[in-house]
Structure formats: structure tokens, C-alpha cells
Amino acid sequence: MPSPAGLSSPSAVNRRRFLKFSVGGSAALVAAPTLASWLAAADAKAATAALPFVDDYKTNVMANLTPETNAVVRALGGFAKVWKTGGAWNTGTPLRPDILRANVRYCVAVTRARTEAQGREAFVYDRQHQSYSTIAGLGPLADLYKAGAKAVTSITAAPDGVPATKIDDAVPADAPAGSALGAGSYASDLGLVAKLVDTVRGPFASGNPGKYAFQYPRPWRMNENSEVVDTGKTDALGFPVYDSQVVVVPQLLRQRSSSPTDDGGFPSGHTNAFHLASLAYAYAVPERFQELVTRALQLSHTRIVSGMHSTVDVLGGRIMATALAAATLADPANAELKAAARAQALAYFTEKTGTTADTLFAYAHSDADDEYADREANARAVAPRLTYVLPREGRKEPLTVPKGAEVLLETRQPYLTAAQRREVLRTTALPSGYVMLDGFEQWGRLNLFAAADGYGAFDRDVTVTLDAAKGGFQAADAWRNDIAGEGGLTKRGSGTLTLTGHNRYHGGTVVEAGVLVAGHANALGQGDVRLTGGTLRAGEPVRVCGAWAQGAGAVLDLTLRGHHGPALTVSGRVRLDRGSVLSLRLDADRPPAAGTTVPVIAASALRGQFDRVELDCAHLRAVPVYTAHGLSVRLLRR
């Protein structure tokens, strides 16, 4: 990487211990200790005086290397509490030696334990265009995307041993005409999506200003004490040998920079690129939102596996990418492009797969061989990569979601208002106390994997409206988190919302229209349930901790299973108004037998009766049997 315009040469920095950079277009000399103090102390002043990141992201250029002048350096300010930048690349001071020692130890352990296959994979993702690498997160749609976007790569495998020369990605000679690296060609069927990816990864998305500002060395240049110790020796390629136990992948040894001053580790540029591309694809193809986030974190981890970056580098790359993606997508100048890219992707994939907006999600998750098919496995992989070696310290502090961050969920949860999407981000965020994540605006606390699964808490009453006529996520969605809080949920609109978490919200549940599906025994929280309209459906037995009230026209849709308890258990009283409906279906695997009496509702007390009891079975009819404490049905042959 060449030296940036306006920066003095490495030799001049070491000789004079000054950092030269451009301020407002004029050259200035700033003493290195002053720069270090700015990074450590000016963050507080910047936090109160600076513009929100989304309004200031275009300051991320090489002329601006302080938190007061650069929005990215400011957003990464949590690292200034861990590392004090020195006057040169090898003179910094660990402010949190425990964290930085753990950082290097982690890198040593990972690089020494990696398999040859993992090393080869790390090489591929180091040299392959990052926007291309991320496409695999599209799962069953990935090959269709590559064909439609004319996206290609020349890096598909690792060579044996150390290559003779440096290797870079290029359009293969045998690629179809019009092919392009990265996200693909603008002159393709998915050209607007490719352009959106490139726009999110645009001229203000570089990690280089951060690298020069923080001057934190690569892990293979540091020892366990986070110090740079040059042994005075060189390896077979002529690189200095440092007192480090981090093992770089052999195939990447020649890719290392020979200029340490121009080769900072923090933040990781590859990680930044992986997440930027991932979030751009996720905006255009939200049917794979969560899997693309998982993919970005997995690819970022290969930076540690390769020996080229450390955990703090990777965390920094994720933080800046989250903020930069939000800023670019929230920029009014890109409003037309992002909407057109989403529309183009939806039209292309529904045509190629023979699906509709309502069925594309199912197709996008239909491949059993999909690397990201298992959501729980994805969650287990994601969780430790959000914090790595950082300890959690201090008391719990609330999060104010950064301005504009809600745009990241705009296509994934289009039925929510901007304010509601901010609540989703707030209630699913990581807790406070992770020093690097608690910087300016706390972008590092956002957990986009969890946010894709809806609210983490109802801290106030939530009303959600889904419209079946609009299709896609506007017609149907699932909230998979375990929802806490003192608020309640009101479901409106003709669409379907599914709750699959073990929910503990206390404010009650109201169904006014459409369908609310209880996908867990405790999906309905710990309050009362009222059905004033629409349908509440449960395929498995469900519990209600409060009372149950069902009005005229409202439908309770339950599945009956043989040799099982009640389909609905209510701790409080049940009130059934005239005109209410009970719709029953038999479990496909273990249906109750004809002639048996099956418990349906158990409650502390029951008042009223259903106007109709329907059974979805051509050969049986359900005869209701009411008691003071519940309802059973006797299944008789027609």
C-alpha cells in the first residue's frame, strides 16, 4: 500500500517523530504525542460536538486522521482506551495490556491449530475480491446471482507452498464477455445490485485513515506482551523476523507488506470490505439477511486464521463497516439506487426460481446442503465473533441507537416504522461494558444477526401491521428472539406474524386482524391474551399465563394430538363471546383416534361457548364438551 498523500516518509517519521498530514488542504506538522493524546482524549469532546456518523461519513479520507476530523476514527475511539498510538508504528503503548495480551495469545493459538485446509481457505479469501467472496452467503441463490451479475474470480484455490510472486484477482481469460470482478457488471441483469455493492464500498469506506491514525501492528509483528521486537534476522523472503509466535499461512508470506509504517493492522480492511458487501447484498436480497451477516463474520474470522490480522483488528473492521453501510444507505443521494437494486433483485430471483415475493424466502432456504441452513449453528458461530477476547466490565448502560442505523433493516423488516426498527436494534444489541464496542455512538454494540429475528424486548407496547397484499416480509415474518419487557403486542393487518421464542413480556397480546402464530409453548408471554378479530394459530400446545378473551369473529386455530394434554392451557379465566370460532386440525404424525375425547382448553374457569367448532377432517366431526374449567371435544365418525 503506498504512502498517503501528505504523510511524511517512514524514515522521516522515525527520525523526527512527527506525523505530517493535511488539514483543510494545507500541510501541518503535529507532534506525535499530540496525535496520541487526541486519539485518547479528544474522543470525549468529539462525542459531544461532532455530527452523527451518518451525516459526517465523507470525512473518512486520508487528510483527516483524528477523531475530531474523521468520523471513522471517532467511531473506532473505543480502541484508544486499549492502545495509545506512538510516534511511529513500533512505539505504541498498551493501555489495556490484559486485552492486547489475550489478543495475541488468541492469534497464536488459532494460527498454530489451523489445518492445511483452513490455511488454504484463508488464502482464497485473502486474495479473492471480497465482494465476490460474500456472494456465497446467498446460499441457493448464489449461483443464480453470479450468472445474472456476470460476477467472476480467478482465485478459486490456493497454490502449494509459497508462490513465486504476489497473486491478485483478475477476470479469467475464459470468462464470458462482459464479466467483472467483485459484485459483477453494471451491464448485467443484476447491474443495479452490483452498483449498490460498489457504492456501499465507495470512496469514503477505506480503512486506511484508521490504520494510519492508530498505527497498531499486525499480529505477526508482535510478541505476547504486545511489543514489537525485531530479532535482526530476516526470513527466506527477506522480511524481518519478529519475536512472534503467530504463524502466517505459507501461501500469504509473499503478500505481506515490507513497509510496517504503511501496514497497520487496525482496523482490518478485509473485514471492513466483507461486512460492507454483505450488508449491501442483504439490503437487496433480505431473504438471506441473517445468512449474509453470518458469512461476513465467518470470512472476517479467516483474517485471524491466516495470521494477517488479530481479533481487535477484525472487531474494528466490523464496527466501521456497520456505520459506513448505514451511512451510505441512509444517504438521500443513494435512495433511488437502493430501491431500484432491491426491486431488480426481487424480480430477477422470482423469475429465475419460479417463485413469488411470498415464496422466495422458502426457496432461498430450501437447500439442505446450504452451508448456512442451520440457524442455531449460525447463532453459535456468530456469538463469540462479536466480542472475541474482550471482557465485559462495568455496569449496564442503555444504548441510544446511532442515527440512521435503522436503514440496515429497511428491507428486512419493511412493515415496521423507522422508530420501530430502531427499537429492534436497541433491544437486540450487545450489552455495554465491552471497551472497544462502547466508542462514539456505540456502533459495535449493534447485533444485526439478532435484529433480523425481531424485537428482543417490548419495553413499551408494540403495534405491528402486516399486509398480505404487499407480499414478502410485509405479508409474513417470524420473530425468533426470546422477547422480554413490560410492554405488550398488538397484531393488526391481514398478514401473518409468527412468534417462536420463549417470551416473557408482561404487557399481554392482542390479535385484531390477520394471523398470529404461536410457534413456542411460551410464545404469548406472561400477560393476558385477547382476540378481537383475526386468527391465533398454534401447531403445538401453548400456555397463557394470564386470562383469555375471544370476541365475535375471532378464530382460535389449534392442532390436536393423540395421548397429549390440552392444546391450550390458560392460568386465568377464559371468556368466549358469541360469534367466536374454534378451528381444529389433527396432528399429521400422531392424530387422536375416532371415538376418543381430546382435551382442548384447560383454564381456572371458562365462561361462554364457541359459536362454531370446526374440524379439518373429512371423516370425523368434533363434538364440544364444556366444563367449568375447560373444553374437550369428542371425535365421532361422520
From TrEMBL:
Keyword Cell cycle among UniProt keywords: no
First and last residue of the signal peptide: 1-36
Matching Pfam families: PAP2, PATR
Phosphatidic acid phosphatase type 2/haloperoxidase domain location: 190-329
Record-linked InterPro entries: Autotrns_rpt, PAP2/HPO, PAP2/HPO_sf, Pectin_lyase_fold/virulence, TAT_signal
UniProt keywords, alphabetically: Signal
Presence of the UniProt keyword Signal in the record: yes
Cited SUPFAM superfamilies: Acid phosphatase/Vanadium-dependent haloperoxidase (SSF48317), Pectin lyase-like (SSF51126)
Cross-referenced NCBIfam families: autotrns_rpt (TIGR02601)
Protein name: Autotransporter-associated beta strand protein
Species, as recorded: Streptomyces achromogenes
